[in-house]
Amino acid sequence: MTIDRARFDKGLTYDAYKAQMTRNRERQYDHIKSNLKKRGRPEETAERIAAATVNQTRTAKGETKEPKPPSERARAKRDMSAAGRKGAKARQSR
Fold first, then answer.
1. DSSP string across 25-43
2. Looking at the predicted structure, is the pLDDT value of residue 83 above 90?
3. What is the rounded CA–CA span in Å between residue 61 and residue 63?
4. How far, in Å, CA of 94 to CA of 90, rounded?
């Protein structure tokens, strides 16, 4: 996991950083899931999509338990940015 030096200078320990990231990802999961349900997706589908999105974000940001190779992290970052572009194009075509 990559943690910048400024966080440690402020007194934030690794465990505190990890706990904060966990809370952030839980909020992200709940937010994605609720938005998908509002758009009419079934509960199971919304959970699956939300979990996949959070896991992909964690991989792209280097927050996974096991370090991922740079190529896998780069692919996850590309996929995340491409998803945003696809969404914008889909909205324009409707």
1. HHHHHHHHHHHHHHTT--H
2. no
3. 6
4. 7
CA-CA distance, 40 to 14, in Å (whole number)? Answer: 39
Longest dimension (CA), the chain: 49
Kindly report the pTM of this predicted structure. 0.64
Residue with tokens 């959970």: 47
By residue count, the chain amounts to 94
Distance of CA 79 to the CA centre of its chain: 11
Integer Cα distance of 20 and 26 in angstroms: 10
Of the candidates 72, 35, 37, the residue with the CA atom closest to the CA atom of residue 55: 72
pLDDT digits (tens, 9 = 90+) for 39-71: 999 999 999 999 999 888 888 887 777 777 888
